[in-house]
Amino acid sequence: xxxxxxxxxxxxxxxxxxxxxxGFSIYGVASGVSRKTGCKWIADYRDTWTNSExxxxxxxxxxxxxxxxxRHYLSNVSAFCTVSPWYVEKIERLLxxxxxxxxxxxxxxxxxxxxxxxxxxxxxxxxxxKFTILYPGSLYDNQKLTFFLNVLQCMSPDVIGxxxxxxxxxxxxxxxxxxPALKPFANSVVRVxxxxxxxxxxxxxxxxxxxxxVAHLSADGTPVxxxxxxxxxxxxxxxxxxxxxPSDSDFAEYKLNQCGLAVVEPSAEDFAKRLTRMVNDKKDxxxxxxxxxxxxxxxxxxEHAARVLADVLREHLL
Length: 318
What we know:
Elements: H1 2-11, E1 17-21, H2 25-37, E2 41-45, H3 58-74, E3 79-82, H4 85-95, E4 100-102, H5 122-125, E5 131-136, H6 146-153, H7 157-160, E6 163-168, H8 172-178, E7 190-193, H9 198-207, E8 210-213, H10 230-237, E9 242-244, H11 251-259, E10 262-263, H12 268-283, H13 294-298, H14 302-317
Helix pairs in contact: 1-2, 6-12
């Protein structure tokens, strides 16, 4: 890819290069072209590279090998942007300079109410007679449902019987391998569906009673700060209450508290009491969609993210 980019930049009037990663080899292309032509470039990190805290074993060895390469690529960057304030700080520490900007992922606006054909169907996954908690997407090895299990153990059997945790987008074997204590709840409280189309996942988020946010854990078992899953913005888009384990003021918790959507309690016992009230409110017809102030809601759209990115480009390239 290096040669065609070099040829294009050399023969056209180019204000600058915006290189988005992963994959991170694109930073080598942008950095090399910049050295050759003097064209400025900006690195757009949609994820961290060599300072990831969630890798273990051989992954850490690979990161240690790649870290000097990352520093070399970024040594001539005009600026970088990334998806959370914690990522900005981590990358600035890695590079030894402050040129970072926050440009969030955001959600796309638009109408997704068109009919959906899928197996299983939305109606088969969501049970109107039960309080359905949704987890859409993959569950990685370092994402544990331990806190939710502790909450279940604090709840009365009749309330548990009114609950469903639907995990959509992961294999049963993976879910129960990483969370063996959930096995007794299989097919009663916990239901696993391997894959659905994105349009179906969107509809599930729209119509479930709540979603659950599962933190990534570092190698020492502590929550990793600053990872804003793209699903976070879909939860905001659909104004869904989000069940979260207590954390260390993570970016996701900050965002959801700002929107009034976070359901966080200091202990499993307190969480069980709150979730019981939510279940009973549904039975009594008292559930209401949370109100997210328009100003906050609009700051989580991709249109807003595009405006912020445009400001970064104007500041550093024009």
